[in-house]
Amino acid sequence: MQALKERILKEGKNLGGGILKVDSFINHQVDPVLMDACGAELAKRFAHVGATRVLTAEISGIGPALMTARHLGVPVVYARKTKPITMPDTVYLTIAPSHTRGRPVELIVSPEYLASGERVLIIDDFLASGATILGLVRLTQAAGADVVGIGALIEKTFEGGRDALAFLNVPIVSLACIVSMVEGKIVFAP
Asked: What percent of the chain has pLDDT over 90?
């Protein structure tokens, strides 16, 4: 998606070590017009999978997941990183490493909002190693639901996440694929 790539080149910051800072339009401050366009594009690409829910991880995945769900006409559920007192005692919980936090985080979903038989489209801001998305897959499977697709705004292909998710045999779509972040540069797939 050209608009997303242009924004990454204009405002994204390569912090080294595979970290791409996109806080000014995705992760801290969110550009709703860009997120709506990204959501529309992801919804178009996944229209054929018959999703009944969109699932993401708190917090940076919420923007693209919400806009994708809006365009698909389905609810969005996000995995919480802490359990609020309003959540039931029995929950779906997994641990996933966090690239930006530098430590593992809990991902928690209430069974009230993710049920057996659901067709789940996982949407996140990044696809890097695939660890967070694999955590969301585990939550989906624990609920007895089916993963029908995986979408990301930005994929760092050099971290191998797509290969780690290939066993799911579902469509994987990224709107901007970065093939290299060496020497402070950001290089997209052709």
From this structure: 92
User: Among 149, 97, 157, which Cα is nearest to 124's?
Assistant: 149
Tell me the per-residue pLDDT of 171-183, one tens digit each, with 9 for 90 and over.
999 999 999 999 9
High-pLDDT (> 70) share of the chain, %: 98
Q: Determine the residue type at 90.
A: T
For residues 127 and 137, is the Cβ–Cβ distance under 8 A? no
For the chain, the helix, strand and coil percentages under 3-state DSSP, each to the nearest 5: 35, 35, 30
Q: Which two tokens stand for residue 22?
A: 């996109």
Q: What is the mean pLDDT of the chain?
A: 96
Higher pLDDT, 68 or 101: 68
Which fold, 2-188? Rossmann fold (3.40.50)
Provide the annotated binding site for 5-phospho-alpha-D-ribose 1-diphosphate.
128-132
- Annotated binding-site residues for xanthine read 20, 27, 156
**Domain ranges (residues) in the chain:** 2-188
Element spanning 131, H or E: helix 131-142
CA-based torsion, 14, 33, 176, 72: positive or negative:
positive
Q: Which residues carry a binding-site annotation?
A: 20, 27, 128-132, 156
DSSP string, 13-78: EEEETTEEE-IIIIISS--HHHHHHHHHHHHHHHGGG--SEEEEETTTTHHHHHHHHHHHT--EEE
